[in-house]
Queue: 2 jobs
Job 1
Amino acid sequence: MSMDEAFGRRVTKLGALADPVRRALYRFVADQPGAVSREQAADGVAVPRHTAKFHLDRLVDEGLLVTEFRRLTGRTGPGAGRPAKLYRRSGKEVAVSLPHRSYDLAGDVLADAVERSLAGTPIEDAVRAAAGDAGARAVEASEPDPGATDLDRVAGVLATFGFEPRVDGDLLLHNCPFDRLASDHTELVCGMNLAFVEAVADGLGCTGVEPGLDPDPARCCVRVRDGAAGGAPERGRGATA
């Protein structure tokens, strides 16, 4: 799935909550300790049962609610009646930000780095190692086009994390998905970005590219150059203010 398709799906899911009745039903179901029936949901927000059914099923279609079937009487066997369709909140998380942010990725990397540092690894090395592992996992989860250029293959993986890559001679990343963190902890986050991009390139087997730091306030601090062109930034260096 492309970044645009994934974004479209998230927007559609959140758009389902724009309707006030649907939003009220979602909040009612989410506030309950267990799954609820259509009748309970309808009574909870004071709407007709058929109205509740329509909106609840729309929320299921969008992945915001899930269903289960259970007899509410507690009886079993003949005469116990059919199981009721019950609704509860889905465990999926849905978020949309403009520009795209990936603070969950940063959180995973930094939590991994803290664990490594507690085991004795210097924090800078721990962050780079954790970011490298995250980049390797990103490659494993990707479906790169084997016929694409090295720069385009790297761009394809980075696009799913909101880097907004554009290939025009070099590969430039026009968005930093960790923007707020980078503003306050520039050297740490830029080093993390570089290690992540290096791991993506290495994991894809893109030996013809050279990721390096090239700070610019208008975009991510990492630039990926065609190694054959020469003059690539040096790998593994921290950002400078």
Job 2
Amino acid sequence: MTRTGRARNLLDHSEMPEIQINPGDARHYHIGDGQLLELRSPRGRMCGRALVSAAQKPGELFAPIHWSETLAQDARVSALAGPATDPHSGQPEFKQLPVQLSPLPVHSYATLLCHEETAAPMQQWLARQEKTGALVPRAL
């Protein structure tokens, strides 16, 4: 978050981490728009909400890199990446990263609105968003 965490437009563009998927791939994997997904690689795991989009190339997924553990549980794309990094920026290799995609089963969705930052109740997945100065945990 040393670069992207300072870019307000990146933080405001979506309320939760998203994984963009082509409509044909979504049909193949039985994934609906807005459904919670899990990506796994040999290195780790990432969760996010499906964003079905014809703009996404078939056979490829896209997930923004600016989500961190402070904003959303298991939302770091870097958790999937291997140890190879660019020697100048330290940026991990994200452009060609094989992953296993699966829907993340949830029993229910809930939104918890708080006037001030608070510990979230037990949940399977959590994303936070800032609204008028307060953090809003979204337990899914």
